[in-house]
Design brief:
Distance between the termini: 35 Å
Shape: elongated
Structural class: alpha/beta
Number of strands: 12
Strand order of the largest sheet: 8-9-7-10-11-12
Largest sheet: 6 strands, mixed
Radius of gyration: 29 Å
Bound molecules: guanosine-5'-triphosphate, magnesium ion
Number of domains: 2
CATH class of the largest domain: Alpha Beta
CATH superfamily of the largest domain: P-loop containing nucleotide triphosphate hydrolases
Strand content: 15-25%
CATH topology of the largest domain: Rossmann fold
CATH architecture of the largest domain: 3-Layer(aba) Sandwich
Length: about 350
């Protein structure tokens, strides 16, 4: 990436009738444009840059006669998804893009050159001096995307986590009637919010049992938790508490996160049982929802509520951050393979959508 060069200063003279040299009138150059990045909620944007190698802000214009200054070069503002971490490979400096709309300064444009008018003084009435504009800063940047997960799904194996992710987003997570179908976290995008389906947890997960341990690390960095409890469980309180216990043992921070409790597979119980179970669940958590994957209406209702909750949460965390004087808690989720696959799939779908619109 390259910031703009400053425009050169100009040597010129005032042109007045009857006087050969009316004094110096060479204008200054304009300053070179700076380079910034800006956080956006569009995770496909990086694909746009795939074939571009050089990013440059505009150069400042050279100064002109008649004391006209060159225009400043336009800044380059490069949109990148929130969660991007840019490393300046020359200086090693790291920049984290955590908020939507946040502008981060990367490279300084070159200083403008001075025209000869600037050198005028009592002893120097006809200065010939001028200066050239400076080059802008330039550096190679390494960009890494650390996705910020808004909602992490937790629950026992077979609770219906992957099925739900597929319904709420365009993800294609593997779903099957056996335990530990999901081996790696799956990601989905719900109106710009990132949802992550974490492999099933079991009792002892926090001590390394099952697959859970490796992934609790990921949930620990999400903004909120969606706790799924299947109504197949005879005792939903016990099922709920077992998972809560694991989360708490793993980390206090995790157990203090905002949690939504979702009772799944409502189609497997009678309306009367469901009513009882909801009452039971409300004693465990104030935010209780129910749903069945085969009932589209229940999915739609949950989806609408979820979007509202995620928006609220975003507002709250924005306010919290402000009150902490800008001190940010990075809520970061990283997998080696998922994001690339996720981005490619999204781009493909977007391309298809555009085609079908034509
Ligand atoms: N009857 C019924 N079955 C469901 C519902 N949701 C999911 N299932 C089934 O439950 C089984 C498990 O679903 P998954 O979505 O794979 O569950 P998971 O929580 O991702 O499981 P793991 O990946 O093993 O942790 C599958 O056979 C699904 O078809 C539901 O609402 N009703
Ligand atoms: Mg799964």
């Amino acid at each position: 990436m390259k910031a703009g060069k400053g425009g050169d200063g100009y040597v010129g003279w005032r042109n007045e009738k009857g006087r050969e040299f009316g004094g110096p009138a060479g204008g200054n150059g304009g300053r070179g444009g700076d380079v910034y990045v800006r956080g956006v909620r569009d995770y496909t944007i990086l694909l746009k840059y795939r074939n571009i190698k050089d990013f440059a802000a505009k150069n400042g214009q050279n100064g002109m006669g008649g004391n006209v200054w060159g225009k400043n070069g336009q800044d380059l503002i490069l949109d990148v998804p929130i969660g991007s971490v840019l490393t300046n490979e020359t200086t090693g400096e790291k920049f984290e893009v955590l908020k939507e709309g946040e502008l981060i300064f990367l490279l300084k444009g070159g200083k403008a050159g001075l025209g000869n008018a600037e050198f005028k003084g009592p002893k120097n009435v006809a200065p010939e001096q001028f200066t050239l504009g400076n080059e802008g800063e330039r550096a190679d940047f390494f960009l890494e995307l650390q996705l910020v997960v808004d909602l992490g799904f937790v629950g026992f194996p077979n609770a219906g986590k992957s099925s739900l992710l597929n319904e709420l987003t365009r993800a294609h997570a593997k779903v099957a009637a056996y335990q530990f179908t999901t081996l790696e976290p799956n990601l989905g995008d719900l109106h710009g919010y990132i949802l992550a389906d974490i492999p099933g947890l079991i009792e002892g997960a926090s001590e390394g049992k099952g697959l859970g341990f490796k992934f609790l690390r990921h949930v620990n960095r999400t903004k909120a938790i969606l706790h799924l409890v299947s109504l197949e469980n005879e005792n939903i309180t016990e099922a709920y508490k077992t998972i809560r216990g694991e989360l708490a043992t793993y980390s206090k921070e995790l157990s203090e996160k905002k949690e939504i409790l979702l009772l799944t597979k409502t189609d497997l119980v009678t309306p009367a049982v469901l009513k009882k179970k909801i009452a039971e669940a409300k004693k465990l958590n104030k935010l209780v929802f129910t749903l069945s994957i085969i009932d589209d209406k229940s999915i739609k209702e949950f989806k609408d509520s979820l979007i509202k909750i995620l928006r609220e949460l975003e507002k709250e965390s924005g306010e919290k951050k402000k009150s902490k004087k800008g001190k940010d808690e990075a809520v970061v989720f990283k997998t080696d393979t998922a994001p690339t696959k996720f981005l490619e799939e999204r781009a493909e779908r977007a391309a298809k959508k555009i085609k079908s619109k034509k």
